[in-house]
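Incident review: delayed structure delivery

Summary: a single-chain prediction request sat in the queue longer than the usual turnaround. Root cause was a stuck worker, restarted by the on-call engineer. No data loss occurred. The affected request and its eventual output are reproduced below so the record is complete for anyone auditing the incident later.

Affected input:
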Amino acid sequence: KLDREGKDGFDLLDEIEAKLGLNVMPLSWPVGMGQTFQGVYNLFERKLMLFKPHGKQDDEIIEIRDLSDPQLEKHVGKRAAETLREENEILEEVYPDFNKADYLSGKISPVFFGSAINNFGVKELLDCFIQIAPNPLPRTTEERVVNPDEDKFAGFVFKIHANIDPRHRDRIAFMRICSGTFERNTNYLHVRQNRQLRFSNPTSFMAAKKEIVDEAFPGDVVGLYDSGNFKIGDVLTEGEELHFKGIPSFSPEIFRFVENKDPMKYKQFQKGLEQLMDEGVAQLFTREFDGRRIIGVVGNLQFDVIQYRMEGEYGAKVDYEPANFYKACWVTCENKDAFQEFKERRRRDLAVDKDGNLVFLAESAWMLKMAQENHPDVDFHFTSEI
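Output delivered after worker restart:
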């Protein structure tokens, strides 16, 4: 918001470093601020971009490789030119030259200045990002490593969102392209279901805008209209059976029993819970011995989100009751007899998640510790791969 008065550029950088723990690297620098804001100097490309207040920004860019060039005074005035030169000297002393390897390894965070509401300085950020951003990385599957430069297409679903447009009740599966080229109206193998699917309206999203795409490439994210075929972690390929390493589900920390408030809306309640859990909004556990449903979350706000979306999108009202659990652990065991004994002894403490995996609900840290000691053959997992 450099068209408004605010903190000095150096103070802003110091605050980012102190509060966010980032090593910043300014790649553009403001010329003035507020009433005196005249533009930004692109340190990355050594170019001056002039700002036009109260008007549409144009592409007026003046190449000034050396700030001692008298051209600078001509465009911004003597005082602003002197200030920019002085500040640039400080920048050169404090910050080393930009090193792409340091950026790619996460050691430095580039910073750009501008005025977002006027769409000024944004293009420079995006242009630089295109130049320096990393290429898509190889992805590990259970079978092999998939490289982005492979010819054959492979991608996996990492997010599902229901009712993205409330008027159409659509459900979108977001897929990341890992290799090859994804093409519209082409048959691809849905590995989990072992059947061919074709997509006539693959969509790309940018904020509230969406458009149909004819093809997409490694690193791209495509939205696929879904009638219930997809789960998070599902894979599409040109025919090869691949299973990408799953996205981990972490053990929740806060639990509540969830109940349907209106018996006449049971179908809506069931559908809403199912779809929201598929999205990963929270985790649902169904207790084995009495069938009660328990929602587990990381933060209390998630309960409010579920309640709001259940009523607004599905017309189902939910009630919560406190559930005093300390931890939910996924349990597995290679010894069948030991596992059967565990299940019989701990029947009242067991539930299943939405995918049917067995979960142990510990009421306290002591109870969890005792269960681990009394059943050494049983493995307790605090994450579950989707």
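Verification: The first helix runs from residue 9 to 20.
Action items: add queue-age alerting; document worker restart procedure.
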